[in-house]
Each structure stands twice: as C-alpha cells, then as structure tokens.
Amino acid sequence: MVQRSEGSAMKAMLVFTIMMVVLPIFSYFFSKSVIFEGIMGVAAQSSYFYAAIVAIAVVHVILGLFIYVAWSEEPRPVPQFKAD
C-alpha cells in the first residue's frame, strides 16, 4: 500500500512538472499571436506584455492545482510498532 501511494505521488509530480514546462510556454505564444494580435488587434509591442501576464497566470493556476492535489491526498497509514 505504501508503494502505491509513492507511485501516485511520483506520477502526480511528473504530470505537474510537464504542465509547468509546457502550458506557460504554449499559453504565451498562443495568446500573443492568436488572441492579442489576431483577434484583438493589439500592437506587437503591447502583445508581449499581455502574453507574459497570461503565462504568469497559468503558472499560478498550475501551482494552485498542485497545492490542492497535495493537500487533498490521503495520508499514509503510520506503522504500528509492537511495544514489548
């Protein structure tokens, strides 16, 4: 049972690490080119600034999700030692 919990913790850490690398970069370039420059027609100089704000917001959301998952994780049982 302890191995299962360690494996799930490692899997969650790996998922959040990949999300922390991929999603902010993707959201930066996507929001810059598609949302701000494409749809909203913002100038290129200003779109860098707004896209950076979007990427920072994505990082904060991922960190909040990681904290929520870590906080709501079931506690591992403490082994009972026999006292003689």
Automatic annotation (TrEMBL):
What is the protein's major site of localization? endoplasmic reticulum
A Pfam family the protein falls into: VMA21
Q: Where in the cell is it found?
A: Endoplasmic reticulum membrane; Endoplasmic reticulum-Golgi intermediate compartment membrane; Cytoplasmic vesicle, COPII-coated vesicle membrane
**Any idea which UniProt keywords this protein has?**
Cytoplasmic vesicle, Endoplasmic reticulum, Membrane, Transmembrane, Transmembrane helix
Give the InterPro entries listed for this entry.
Vma21 (IPR019013)
Carries keyword Membrane?
A: yes
Keyword ATP-binding attached: no
Q: How does it sit in the membrane?
A: Multi-pass membrane protein
Which sequence ranges form a coiled-coil region, renumbered to this chain? none
Its transmembrane ranges are 12-30, 50-71
Q: Which domain of life is it from?
A: Eukaryota
For this chain, the family text in UniProt reads: Belongs to the VMA21 family.
Q: What does this protein do?
A: Required for the assembly of the V0 complex of the vacuolar ATPase (V-ATPase) in the endoplasmic reticulum.
The protein's name: Vacuolar ATPase assembly integral membrane protein VMA21 homolog
- Supply the source organism for this entry: Aplysia californica
